Amino acid sequence: MILIGLLGEKRSGKGTFINFLAEFAKPKHVGRIRSVDVLYETLKIWGIDATRKNLIKLTVAMDGAYGKGTLTEAVRQRIVKDNSDIVIFDGVRWPTDEKLIRSFGKNLIVYVTANPETRWKRGLTAGEKVGEDKATFEEFLKEEKAKTEEFIPDIGSRADFKIVNEGTLENYKKEAQKFCENFLNN
Fold first, then answer.
1. Which PANTHER family match (predicted)?
2. Percent of the chain predicted with pLDDT > 90
3. Which of 35, 47, 69, 184 is deepest in the core (most CB within 10 A)?
4. What residue ranges define each of the domains in the chain, with the CATH number in brackets?
């Protein structure tokens, strides 16, 4: 198994990267594990809306109450149970996530990024999180300073591959293909 840690600021295009990777990696099977799914499941059980604010609060509360890396440990348990040829840990955010990825024999970190205005505009139409389509640019920028976002650039600086996703979808697809050619086909 190859473990790929995928990180990037919100709305940078991580999900699209995974779709491209699954296409280019065939016939290998690509599995996706998102740390946010653990949070979604928890909030759903509690009957709490999965707003970005609530997801951030839950993440911070978990680390505060149970120690740093609590969410990372939940993700690790899901990774080791996945039988895919390539497993993507989507949503790397913390130093403990980076340490987890690097603990696997075959590992890579991919950093997908774009400027804030581009990502904000994407969020207006994506509809992934409750209320995200109504956020002003100022609110978006404020969320960029959340505790869950603070380590992304630092971890990204050590990534094995970086994509600046500000061009066309076709250009982005070419970058994903280049990643596959350089790292997965060898």
1. DEPHOSPHO-COA KINASE, UPF0200 PROTEIN MJ1399
2. 76
3. 35
4. 2-184 (3.40.50.300)
pLDDT tier, 184 (very low <50, low <70, confident <90, very high otherwise): confident
- Whether the CB-CB separation of 107 and 101 falls below 8 Å is answered with yes
What backbone torsions phi and psi does residue 12 show, to the nearest 5 degrees? -80, -20
Token digits of residue 34: 């998102």
What CA–CA distance (Å, rounded) separates 39 from 35? 7
How far is the C-alpha of 44 from the C-alpha of 68, rounded, in Å?
Answer: 23
Handedness of CA 123, 50, 141, 172 (dihedral sign): negative
CA distances (Å), origin 121, targets 4, 27, 115, 117, 151: 27, 34, 10, 6, 23
3-state secondary structure of 131: coil
